[in-house]
Every structure is written in structure tokens, then in C-alpha cells.
Write a sequence for this structure.
């Protein structure tokens, strides 16, 4: 079974979803990601979904769950590159993902994570 | 078979076509079509001739009771064209239908001449002819209405395109000035074009200006909230501007929670947006004094 790669950049983890998500893949991603956060002591998680064209309520909930799990492990989650169609679908499904931070692209996502981590360190 | 017996109409029309056309034209000389000045006699002559020839062709199929059938396609097409053309000249549906109805008189004259001695047969034939001409006349009204509806639909689409421009105010700031009532269809269009612009311009802040929205009810508010939520999911912040005093009151009275930054005017919203992306507007005369204050 294929897996979604998790890359480490500094103290951030980058998850780039390039394939269609199915439920089993989503569950294994949650598993792997939490393991990696603990292993690497990452402070930020960035999920790039710019290639994701189809979402359902399960994937929407998974994104929310990942954000909550990361928060428990003291890492901030930023979802980047959501397609317009995906955003509309999620809103129509009633999933506005209030606990998830978002950014337009990977660049701004990294900047946002940096800022969030610095804010936490500063306070 | 009553329809089989009625086939004398086609043969009659075929035999006395020229006579029918002439008496019909004579009748139409002082009809409202000519009186209104929309068509001259020559054009009317042309129209009548074309109608009769199509009518004749369709009659040859022998089916008088089904003008919806394939045999009558030519007549239907002519009537649609005719009705559309006349509608453009500003004629009313009844004036247009009268064109077809006025064929009754010469046709009836022809029939009564043919069946002078057979009253029973004459009434049957007249009934058939009436049914046929009536349905053709009604068809012109239908065609008239259809052409009107096409115009309305086209205008609606044009309005939809016109009313949803997304403008780039600054690098990283886009604005959508909304004008007119927001319904679900328009919200969809606004949402799609806004999100698309956010992707192409990479804008971080979107200003939704509702100065031109006459009323805000719970549904409109719902639509605004949806748009804001979708933009947020993509990583852009929204500011709603142009909230008029009455609208502010309505929103509170309705108990709607907009849960988004809102400003009274577009200028305020732009100022806030600029501050958020780390830009500032300074007075050119005293730049030193203005910049540290921000």
C-alpha cells in the first residue's frame, strides 16, 4: 500500500498529499504523522493539499483531527494550497475547520508557522 | 376515422392556393399588422406566401390534429421566426396571432363554397379547420413568450457576469464590490470568482464590499459567512466593508453573528488590509512624522 511521505524541514514536518485520499490512507497518515512529531520533536506541521481535488467529510474531519492531535503534541498545523473547489465543498458540507490554520502556499505557510512558533516562544 | 374524412382541406388548399392567398392578403390590407407600420404590404405578402407554402406542405402529410409532429416542423419554424421578428418590431402577441387567425375567413369561405349542399359535412370540416388554425395561432403566442423568456435568461446571465468583478486593490489585496441582492446562485458565482482570484493573484486579504447590497437578511448573511469561510480555508483573510447603518441594525436585530472583521467603509477596510500586510500610507510632505506613528 502506498504511503504519504512526511518530510522534515528544520523543526517543521511537511506532508504533501499528491494522491487521492482514501480512508485507509488517511488513518495511516494520522498514525505516521503523530509518530514522526514525537520522534523529531517538530514544532510545526504543514499539510500541502494543492494537488487534492476531491474531498469528503471524512477527509475534512481528518484534517481537523490532525490539527487537534498536533496541538496536543505542541505543534501548530497549517493547511496550505487548498483548491477553490475543495474550499467550497468543505463549506457546503459545514466543515469550516475552525481549529485549522490556513495559508495560500507553502512559502506563506512556512512563514506563518515561524511566526506562530516565535509568538509562543515570546509569550 | 374522423381525421381521414377531413382530408378535403389539404386538397382544397392545394387546388385553390392562389385564390386563398389573394383573399387572405385582401383581408390583411387593413389589419393591425399593417396599420401599426411594423410591416409593409410587400413583406406581408412574402410572409403570407411562405406561410401558405409551408402550410400546404404540412397539410400534405394528412395529419391535422398534431401540429407538434415532424410533418409540421416547417410551419412551426416559420411561425417562430415570424413571431420573433414581429416581437422585435414591438407588436403584441395578439396582433401576431391575428395574422394566423385571419386565415380562417378565406379558408371558411372556401369550405362553405365547396360544401354548399352538405351542411353536416360543412360543419365537420369547419370544426377541423378551426381546431387547426387555433392551435397554429396559439403556437405563435407560445413562440412569442419563448423568445421573450430567452431574452430574460440572457439578460440574467449578463447581469450575473457584470455584477461580480473582482478587483486587485494592492499587491495581495483583492476586493469584490457586491451590487444587488445576493441569492444562492450569485453567491456561488461570487465565491468561485473570488477564490479563483485569490489563487491567481496570491492575495492574502479579500475585502467584500456590500455597499450595493440593498438588504441583508439571514440568508444573505449566511451566504456571506460561507464565502468568508471558504476564503479562510484557502488561507486568505476576509474583511466585510460598506455596512450601512440600517444594515448594521438589521444584522443585530436578526441575531446574525458575522464573526468576521467588518468595517463601515471600503477606505477603512483598505487601511486595515494594508496594515495587516505590513504596508502603510504616509503623507508625502511629512514622511518622517507619519511613519513612526503607525
Amino acid at each position: 500500500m502506498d504511503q504519504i511521505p512526511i518530510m522534515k524541514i528544520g523543526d517543521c514536518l511537511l506532508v504533501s498529499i499528491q494522491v487521492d485520499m482514501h480512508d485507509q490512507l488517511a488513518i495511516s497518515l494520522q498514525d505516521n504523522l503523530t509518530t514522526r512529531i514525537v520522534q523529531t520533536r517538530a514544532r510545526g506541521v504543514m499539510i500541502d493539499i494543492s494537488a487534492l481535488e476531491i474531498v469528503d467529510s471524512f477527509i475534512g474531519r481528518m484534517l481537523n483531527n490532525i490539527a487537534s492531535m498536533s496541538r496536543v503534541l505542541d505543534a501548530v498545523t497549517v493547511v496550505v494550497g487548498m483548491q477553490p473547489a475543495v474550499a467550497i465543498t468543505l463549506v457546503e458540507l459545514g466543515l469550516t475547520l475552525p481549529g485549522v490554520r490556513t495559508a495560500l502556499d507553502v512559502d506563506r505557510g512556512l512563514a506563518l508557522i515561524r511566526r506562530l512558533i516565535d509568538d509562543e516562544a515570546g509569550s | 376515422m374522423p381525421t381521414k374524412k377531413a382530408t378535403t382541406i389539404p386538397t382544397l388548399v392545394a387546388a385553390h392556393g392562389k385564390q386563398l392567398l389573394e383573399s387572405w392578403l385582401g383581408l390583411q390590407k387593413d389589419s393591425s399588422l399593417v396599420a401599426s407600420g411594423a410591416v409593409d404590404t410587400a413583406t406581408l405578402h412574402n410572409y403570407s406566401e411562405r406561410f401558405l407554402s409551408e402550410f400546404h406542405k404540412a397539410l400534405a402529410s394528412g395529419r391535422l390534429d398534431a401540429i407538434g409532429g415532424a410533418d409540421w416542423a416547417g410551419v412551426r419554424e416559420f411561425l417562430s421566426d415570424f413571431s420573433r421578428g414581429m416581437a422585435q418590431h414591438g407588436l403584441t402577441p395578439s396582433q401576431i396571432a391575428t395574422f394566423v387567425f385571419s386565415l380562417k375567413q378565406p379558408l371558411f369561405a372556401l369550405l362553405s363554397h365547396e360544401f354548399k349542399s352538405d351542411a353536416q359535412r360543412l360543419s365537420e370540416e369547419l370544426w377541423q379547420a378551426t381546431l387547426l388554425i387555433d392551435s397554429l395561432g396559439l403556437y405563435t403566442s407560445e413562440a412569442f413568450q419563448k423568445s421573450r423568456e430567452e431574452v430574460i435568461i440572457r439578460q440574467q446571465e449578463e447581469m450575473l457576469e457584470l455584477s461580480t468583478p473582482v478587483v486587485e486593490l494592492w499587491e495581495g489585496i483583492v476586493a469584490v464590490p457586491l451590487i444587488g441582492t445576493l441569492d444562492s446562485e450569485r453567491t456561488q458565482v461570487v465565491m468561485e470568482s473570488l477564490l479563483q482570484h485569490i489563487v491567481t493573484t496570491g492575495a492574502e486579504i479579500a475585502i467584500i464590499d456590500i455597499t450595493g447590497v440593498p438588504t441583508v437578511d439571514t440568508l444573505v448573511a449566511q451566504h456571506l459567512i460561507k464565502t468568508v469561510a471558504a476564503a479562510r480555508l484557502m488561507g486568505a483573510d476576509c474583511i466585510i466593508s460598506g455596512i450601512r447603518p440600517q444594515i448594521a441594525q438589521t444584522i443585530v436585530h436578526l441575531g446574525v453573528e458575522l464573526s468576521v472583521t467588518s468595517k463601515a467603509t471600503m477606505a477603512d477596510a483598505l487601511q486595515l488590509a494594508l496594515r495587516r500586510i505590513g504596508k502603510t500610507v504616509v503623507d508625502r510632505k511629512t514622511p518622517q512624522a507619519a511613519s513612526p506613528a503607525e
Notes: The longest strand of chain A covers residues 12-16.
